[in-house]
């Protein structure tokens, strides 16, 4: 029995040859990633989707205009809701998430923000009575909701949001109002044409006093006619860099009245006579953002692994050039440069995917505590997620772009599937908090850590390495120190020294009389760097611990190669910091590079099997280059021929415009 379970007759022999080289069982690696029974359930769901034409695209989605894309996704949503429970268990987020990926791909679908933000906001912030009233209806899809926070004028600085919710004691209602053009809600997903309810974030005013932003449930469209409710102006914001199947929208409230009990009241409350009770932590109304930041790590990793699947498979069927003259053209994956750009993308994908599981578990644990009023770990969680969403979105974007370029010209075509993946993934740098801003949120926490240490106070587990000042020499190659440990210690040094340096600069500038705010802004770039080095260390440690816990020896060994490649790449990428304070010399950094190049060679025979084990079906991949069977060229030709521009031999526009011009030019001769 071959170890790679995807070998089939009729496949491109070049890709079959790759699968025959597997040194681990791809099914066992799939189980390690997804767990049982999910690994098997995912396959069954993929197979079921293929049998149901109503869930499949009639033609490649990239050939469609926006209106048709939106209509198709609405039509398929109804099909999923009607028949989906025959295919998957709707109560399982994992199974439903997989079905959604198969049917809709990455570009958005009408219920994305309903499930990803609207429901989580209610679950986390509504009191029990409200939850009982709203959640069952929302789950049955009697209505569709979205999360309307960002405004035309402000997305980052939430304290400056202009939408107001003024309490009217007389009628026991809030009046939602958009006082200026810049106060229009702008960006919420599925707001433009789909949602009929929103969680609106607005400044709460009682008796002329502001209590800051709070969340309110507001009906914006009639439940029977879908027409905007009185006082509501709503629409789609237009085409974007990506996510064009998603109707991101704008929204204006003109003195819209809602009942008092439509304010989400688990944490903050307004009594009938207008008495405000604040939450136990001032940022609890930011809970839905925390949820998405925790969830998006795995979503982003998934996109990287899809791009790596495409580029690695394609690199095994594409032959171009010779390494040794006269020996024939090689698969492009034989080139070291190709391996370097693709295997490091693969390593990041695996690291972020597996660490994403840990982040999700940590989030669930702390969210449960918060629900019961214990907010002790909220600051740790907020700092971690601020860093994680920033590093993973940005570095995943770079990895996907490398995958695209590694496919040469065909990577630039939508036939590869990668341009759309990049456009969707890179939005993660912006949504849920612009990266530079979020990195600085985490930097505050790191600087505080150094100050706490100086005052002899206890540090959270995440920051304890800051106290390890004896780690001041790179120990690569020393007897008794294995590669992994030496690299993790190097990453600890990089993070600690960077955070210490920038904190010392901040302190010194303030000691010289500069205000804390100005000192901060003068060091903001270095602060974001400190934040990055800390997060990259956290990911590395967490990935290492995850791999060490694997019991299946062959799978642990396969993922250890990926882990070591990840660690060497991270250290090489940040090696300039190793020279700070004389921690390492250039020979030692060269040793890390050599180790990295050896790992590329070691991973090469298993490259296709790693991505096969991630098990993304062709339906979900939507890529001609990444097809499981490797039959790329015939299908590229079919794809191009099916393109709407080729429906007629002579395009009407050519007949109308260019032909007369050319004929007129000829007649002038
Ligand atoms: C089952 C089906 C599955 C279906 C799958 C379908 C898949 C679909 C895929 C769809 C994908 C697309 C999804 C896209 C969703 C995007 C939605 C959005 O962007 S929504 C919009 C997203 N928008 C954004 O993300 C906006 C970004 N902006 C912000 O978050 C805030 O304004 C801020 C954090 C930057 C500052 O806030 P500000 O109030 O000015 O606060 P200060 O700076 O003054 O800090 C004061 C203190 O508070 C602390 N603290 C702060 N936050 C938190 C927290 N959360 N917690 C705890 N603490 C927190 C902070 O550390 C500090 O502590 P200390 O130092 O004093 O001790
Ligand atoms: C695809 C997509 C989907 C979205 N979905 C939703 C949604 O469903 N609901 C919703 O409410 N919103 C949504 N948003 C909005 C999103 O959350 C905001 O765009 C995001 O939080 C960034 O805010 P901004 O647009 O105001 O950027 P800005 O804050 O204007 O950022 C512009 C630049 O200013 C810099 N900057 C701003 N403040 C600071 C600072 N304090 N320090 C240093 N630099 C700073 C930033 O780093 C950036 O370089 C979505 C956005 C996108 C792109």
TrEMBL record:
Gene3D superfamilies xref list: Acyl-CoA dehydrogenase/oxidase, N-terminal domain, Butyryl-CoA Dehydrogenase, subunit A, domain 2, Butyryl-CoA Dehydrogenase, subunit A, domain 3
Pathways per UniProt: Lipid metabolism; peroxisomal fatty acid beta-oxidation
Binding site for FAD: 150, 189
Cofactor(s) listed in the protein's UniProt record: FAD
A GO BP annotation: ascaroside biosynthetic process
Chief place of localization: other
Active site: 432 (proton acceptor)
Record-annotated Acyl-CoA oxidase C-alpha1 domain positions: 286-447
InterPro entries documented for this protein: ACOX_C_alpha1, Acyl-CoA_ox_N, Acyl-CoA_Oxase/DH_mid-dom_sf, Acyl-CoA_oxidase, Acyl-CoA_oxidase_C, AcylCo_DH-like_C, AcylCoA_DH/ox_N_sf, AcylCoA_DH/oxidase_NM_dom_sf
Subcellular location: Peroxisome
Keywords on record: ATP-binding, FAD, Fatty acid metabolism, Flavoprotein, Lipid metabolism, Nucleotide-binding, Oxidoreductase, Peroxisome
Pfam families per UniProt: ACOX, ACOX_C_alpha1, Acyl-CoA_ox_N
Cellular-component GO terms for this entry: peroxisome
Boundaries of every Acyl-coenzyme A oxidase N-terminal domain copy: 26-144
Entry's family note: Belongs to the acyl-CoA oxidase family.
Protein name: Acyl-coenzyme A oxidase
Species this chain originates from: Mesorhabditis belari
């Amino acid at each position: 029995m071959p170890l790679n379970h995807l070998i089939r007759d009729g496949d491109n022999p070049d890709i079959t040859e790759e699968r025959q080289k597997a040194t681990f069982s791809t099914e066992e690696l799939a189980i390690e990633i997804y767990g049982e029974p999910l690994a098997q359930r995912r396959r069954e769901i993929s197979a079921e989707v293929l049998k149901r034409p109503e869930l499949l695209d009639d033609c490649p989605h990239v050939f469609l205009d926006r209106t048709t894309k939106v209509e198709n996704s609405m039509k398929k949503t109804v099909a999923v809701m009607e028949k989906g429970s025959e295919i998957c268990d709707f109560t399982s987020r994992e199974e439903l998430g997989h079905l959604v990926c198969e049917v809709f791909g990455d570009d958005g679908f009408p219920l994305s923000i309903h499930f990803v933000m609207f429901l989580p906001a209610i679950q986390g912030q509504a009191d029990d009575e409200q939850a009982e009233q709203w959640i069952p209806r929302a789950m049955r899809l009697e209505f569709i909701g979205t999360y309307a926070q960002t405004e035309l004028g402000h997305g980052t600085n939430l304290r400056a949001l202009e939408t107001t919710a003024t309490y009217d004691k007389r009628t026991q209602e809030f009046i939602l109002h958009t006082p200026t053009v810049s106060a229009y809600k702008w960006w919420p997903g599925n707001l433009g044409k789909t949602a009929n309810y929103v969680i609106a974030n607005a400044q709460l005013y009682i008796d002329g006093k502001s209590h800051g932003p709070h969340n309110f449930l507001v009906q914006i469209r009639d439940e029977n006619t879908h027409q905007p409710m009185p006082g509501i102006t709503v629409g789609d914001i237009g085409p974007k860099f990506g996510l064009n199947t998603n109707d991101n929208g704008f929204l204006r409230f003109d003195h819209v009245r809602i009942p008092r009990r439509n304010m989400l009241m688990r944490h903050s409350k307004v009594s009938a006579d207008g008495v405000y009770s604040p939450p136990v932590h001032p940022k609890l109304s930011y809970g839905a953002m925390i949820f998405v930041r925790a969830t998006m790590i795995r979503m982003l990793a998934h996109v990287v692994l899809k791009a790596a699947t495409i580029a690695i498979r394609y690199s095994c069927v594409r032959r171009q050039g010779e390494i040794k003259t006269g020996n024939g053209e090689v698969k492009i994956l034989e080139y070291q440069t190709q391996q370097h750009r693709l295997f490091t993308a693969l390593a990041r994908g695996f690291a972020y995917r597996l660490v994403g599981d840990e982040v999700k578990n940590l989030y669930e644990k702390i969210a449960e505590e918060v629900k019961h009023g214990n907010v002790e770990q909220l600051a740790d969680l907020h700092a971690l997620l601020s860093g994680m969403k920033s590093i993973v979105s940005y570095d995943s974007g770079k990895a996907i772009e490398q995958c695209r370029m590694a496919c040469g010209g065909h990577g630039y075509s939508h036939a590869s599937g990668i341009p759309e993946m990049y456009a969707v993934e890179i939005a993660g740098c912006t949504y849920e908090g612009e990266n530079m801003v979020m990195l600085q949120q985490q930097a505050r926490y790191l600087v505080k850590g150094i100050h706490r240490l100086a005052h002899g106070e206890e540090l959270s587990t995440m920051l304890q390495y800051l106290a390890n000042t004896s780690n001041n020499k790179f120990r690569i190659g020393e007897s008794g120190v294995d590669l992994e440990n030496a690299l993790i210690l190097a990453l600890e040094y990089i993070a600690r020294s960077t955070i210490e340096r920038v904190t010392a600069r901040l302190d010194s500038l303030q000691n010289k009389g500069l205000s804390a705010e100005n000192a901060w802004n003068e060091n903001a770039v270095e602060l974001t760097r400190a934040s990055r080095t800390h997060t990259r260390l956290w990911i590395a440690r967490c990935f290492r611990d995850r791999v060490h816990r694997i019991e299946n020896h062959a799978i642990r060994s396969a993922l250890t190669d990926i882990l070591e490649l990840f660690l060497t790449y991270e250290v090489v990428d940040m090696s300039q910091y190793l020279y700070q304070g004389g921690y390492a010399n250039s020979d030692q950094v060269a040793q890390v590079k050599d180790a990295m190049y050896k790992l590329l060679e070691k991973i090469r025979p298993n490259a296709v099997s790693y991505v096969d084990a991630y098990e993304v079906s062709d339906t979900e991949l939507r890529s001609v280059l990444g097809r499981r069977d490797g039959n790329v060229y015939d299908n590229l030709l079919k794809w191009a021929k099916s393109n709407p521009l080729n429906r007629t031999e002579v395009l009407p526009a050519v007949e109308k415009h260019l032909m007369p011009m050319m004929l007129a030019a000829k007649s002038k001769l």
